[in-house]
Amino acid sequence: MSAILYPVAASAEAALSEPIGRAAREREAKAAAGRPVRFVSEEVGPAYASREAALDALTGRLDDDRPGRVRELAPEDRFCQLRERAEAAAAPIEPAFAKGRRWPKPTRPPKTTFRLTVSYWQIADAPPPPPPGQARALRRAAEAAQLDATQLRALARQPLRPVRPQQPLDIGLFESPAPEAPHILIPDE
After folding, report:
1. CA-CA distance, 57 to 158, in Å (whole number)?
2. Long-range contacts of range 27-30, CB-CB < 8 Å, 24 or more positions apart?
3. Cα torsion angle, 69, 118, 144, 157, sign
4. Please, which residues have CB within 8 angstroms of residue 170's CB and are 6 or more apart in sequence?
5. Is 15 exposed, middle or buried (0-12, 13-18, 19+ CB in 10 A)?
6. What is the biggest distance separating any 2 CA atoms in the chain, rounded to whole angstroms?
7. What's the predicted TM-score (pTM) here?
8. What residues contact 63, with CB distance under 8 A and at least 6 apart?
9. Mean pLDDT for each 10-residue chunk of the chain (189 residues)?
10. Among 81, 82, 89, 90, which Cα is nearest to 114's?
11. How far apart are CA 51 and CA 112, in angstroms?
């Protein structure tokens, strides 16, 4: 079984058209690029209204399992995928509580589109700068609207930090005060 050879490039478009090289592992990609790399998957190109339209437009990039057009790529060339996405989020609905049902039946499914997703080794000169502050404070701030996609991803990936240090517990996890004498702790199992 051979491994997938992912393109090494600076962007998803470059990965499709003119990659620097192809590599299965990070060390091979780093050697081909001569710089640090990171593995990413990005959507590229237009959104297609149907799966058939996407497969027709992307011939040679994807496996095609339609009758009469069956085409399988070599295992090392399977770095592209076709992903289905909901185009617009449905409006929130209110509970109905009618006829024994809590939620009303959906009127229609959301409109979906298909996009090509390319997985590749992205040349990473420097990590994207993390946005200032924590997410809970930043989402209400006025500058939250000016954040770009890389800053939003970095914000989502940063670890959670407490607002203030946790105070020591007066009572242990498996202890409880006695009802008749609250100053005495009884072990709980």
Report:
1. 38
2. 29/121
3. positive
4. none
5. buried
6. 82
7. 0.59
8. 71, 72, 73, 78
9. 84 90 93 92 90 89 86 88 82 76 75 92 69 66 76 74 68 80 81
10. 82
11. 10
